[in-house]
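Ticket #4471: structure output looks truncated?

Reporter: J.K.
Steps to reproduce: submitted the chain below (202 residues) through the standard prediction queue, then opened the result file.
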Amino acid sequence: MTHSTPRRTGLLATLVLATATALPLAAQESPVPEKGTWSIGFFLPDGGGNSLGGWRMVSDRAMVGLELDFRSSDSDTEPTKGSLAASTEFDDKVFTFGPRVKLYLGHRGPVASYLRFGGGIGWESDQAIGQNAVREETRYQLFLRNSIGADWFPTDGISISGYTGVQLTYFSARNTIDELGVTQKTWAVATFRSDLGINFWF
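Returned output as attached by the reporter:
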């Protein structure tokens, strides 16, 4: 999830590309592999993430699959000269898993657009370890995602993909400072953009 200008540009580019390919060119053969084809996909990490999925074409236009995403980052801050603040270590982790469905809309040359639906469960942990206290937030989530995207098939057996969409999430969060904690439950709606994905078809 982001609100920066470069990523907004990426969201817009993905949306425009997918929309532009929604109507197929009748004179060209679709680059989408035939029914029964399997696919393994990897998303290039952005900020320490690892995402992968397995898919199968169940018709000429639809495929189903499962995806796993795991992200982990560690960092620390040092007090500046003259500051009374102590150094702090940060440890952040995210894990999500769930089913996905892709429905191909059409193509223009080697680029095929699709709608993407999915849901799943997730777990997040943010921990800050300071000299005087330990703060930790643990969040469990259920989510639904709807998005639009495109696959580019530069050669047989390989496609490069990206998508953008909206996610509805239910969070149950536990915030703890040392041994004192509070639990909160809430709903959230946000836009998102995928990392760049590489898919191998066989």
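Triage note (M.O.): checked the attachment and the full token line is present. The longest helix spans residues 5-20.
Status: closed, working as intended.
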